[in-house]
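Severity: low
Component: inverse-folding endpoint
Summary: output formatting inconsistent between runs
Steps to reproduce: submit the following structure tokens with default settings.
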């Protein structure tokens, strides 16, 4: 059973409007495509060209830099699980694993290693994969990518969806997990984000009724969002949330099938061990989600066991990366986070998590954990897939006698305006478990409603909008145009 990744989820999925000021649409996009799969990839190649990329198609990984340094690398083919060498076979790089438990494998497969162009053990280029063996499998993923990138933006793209499973470490970590989970998300998320969470602690409102968690998560994904994450114990084909009334609450193949639909969803990060083991003959959870009609447009998951400490560092650095001006694509964001996590430090968290899963040496070597972390996560899908991050909108505020007045100039081509407000969080009241599923749902809905922005009235005079707010909290002004959401926000305090 893989270890929980609840601390990573606290920080991994949140961005700021600055991240989308100038999404990169240039650079060399290299596709390593195995024979027989080239035609199926053609629509995506053409699409990347329309966005300004130089596209290069080669049959072997050794040719990745044959035309010069790439900006993105997409592998199209699958890992063969026998000694045969079928035409679609496209291996990963096998790396030695620094182990902290005897039962762990000695090596792990790494696609990210193909992005290590200078041989220093750290990738410089984001690498993704469409793990396909037939043209039809490639066509399904390509169709999802094109549909996702061509879909107009909408207000729900500002949602952030997170599901944190039970930690299972015992002691202080378990006792404080839900509070840490919710508080860190609220404090780390950008003020413009509408948050939605599940936390696996039955006495907390964000738990809901445990048996309903998989359904609630699927329903929330369908409502849209910028990015989503599951953070839990896991195996290759399921994640584990919690135990309740003698029942194990998991999310696996049957829940993935229930997610099927016509419209592709935002990228999903599976912060759990082994959920990205696409190199096995049976499809892993990340692969199921990628190939599902209407599932996430890309998934990120580990091909082996990952450590909670380095997952925390990756998550915190991903937050910072998404706030950067040069990030517009999922591959940019995750690679930037992995590189920054090599030197990130938090002594308190390191003390709590370093030995949480045991060790095989007197002192666990965090440097080696960091080294493996940079290479063990697989991005399934195209790393050049653009995130639907908002663009900044300038707003001005003034305060007098406990009331804030605000105003903003709307850009040309405005289609809709949404003004929202989220009050300051109220002190958490101690509660016991709910009496039944109905009571749990009422508590759950109320807790998540408090994490979102409620619509507020405003006035418009030609190209200016303005309004007033009478209490402290988060003010959000969203202007929809054809190509983007423009977001301005203020923390009123």
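Observed output (run 2 of 3):
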């Amino acid at each position: 059973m893989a270890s929980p990744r609840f601390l990573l989820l606290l920080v991994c999925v949140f961005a700021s409007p600055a991240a989308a000021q100038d999404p990169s649409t240039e650079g060399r996009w290299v596709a390593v495509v195995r024979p027989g799969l080239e035609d199926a990839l053609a629509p995506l190649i053409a699409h990347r060209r329309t966005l300004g990329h130089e596209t290069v198609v080669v049959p072997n990984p050794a040719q990745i830099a044959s035309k010069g340094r790439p900006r993105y690398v997409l592998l199209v083919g699958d890992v063969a699980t026998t000694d045969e060498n079928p035409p679609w076979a496209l291996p990963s790089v096998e790396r030695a694993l620094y182990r902290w438990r005897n039962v762990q494998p000695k090596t792990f497969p790494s696609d990210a290693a193909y992005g290590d162009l200078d041989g220093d053990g750290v990738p410089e280029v984001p690498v993704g994969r469409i793990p396909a063996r037939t043209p039809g499998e490639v066509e399904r993923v390509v169709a999802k990518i094109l549909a996702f990138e061509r879909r107009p933006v909408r207000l729900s793209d500002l949602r952030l969806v997170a599901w944190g499973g039970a930690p299972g470490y015992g002691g202080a970590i378990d006792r404080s997990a839900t509070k840490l989970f919710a508080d860190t998300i609220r404090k780390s998320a950008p003020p413009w984000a509408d948050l939605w969470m599940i936390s696996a602690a039955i006495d907390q409102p964000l738990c809901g009724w445990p048996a309903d968690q998989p359904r609630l998560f699927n329903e929330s994904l369908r409502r849209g969002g910028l990015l989503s994450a599951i953070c839990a114990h896991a195996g290759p084909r399921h994640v584990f949330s919690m135990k309740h009334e003698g029942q194990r609450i998991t999310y696996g193949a049957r829940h993935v099938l229930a997610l099927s639909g016509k419209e592709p969803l935002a990228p999903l990060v599976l912060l759990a061990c082994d959920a990205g083991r696409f190199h096995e003959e049976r499809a892993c959870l990340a692969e199921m989600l990628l190939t599902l009609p209407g599932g996430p447009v890309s998934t990120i998951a580990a091909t082996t066991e990952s450590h909670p400490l380095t997952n925390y560092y990756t998550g915190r650095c991903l937050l910072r990366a998404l706030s950067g001006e040069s990030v517009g694509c999922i591959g940019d964001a995750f690679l930037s986070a992995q590189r920054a996590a090599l030197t990130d430090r938090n002594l308190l968290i390191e003390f709590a998590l370093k030995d949480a899963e045991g060790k095989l040496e007197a002192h666990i070597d965090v440097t080696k954990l960091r080294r493996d972390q940079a290479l063990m996560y697989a991005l399934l899908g195209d790393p050049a897939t653009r995130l639907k991050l908002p663009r900044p909108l300038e707003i001005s505020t003034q305060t007098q006698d406990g009331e804030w007045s605000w105003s903003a100039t709307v850009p040309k081509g405005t289609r809709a305006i949404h003004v929202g407000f989220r009050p300051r969080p109220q002190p958490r009241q101690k509660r016991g478990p709910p009496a039944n599923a109905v009571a749990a749902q009422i508590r759950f809905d109320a807790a998540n409603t408090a994490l979102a922005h409620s619509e507020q009235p405003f006035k418009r005079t030609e190209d200016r909008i303005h309004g007033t707010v009478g209490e402290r909290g988060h003010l959000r002004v969203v202007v929809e145009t054809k190509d983007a959401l423009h977001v301005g926000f203020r923390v009123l305090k």
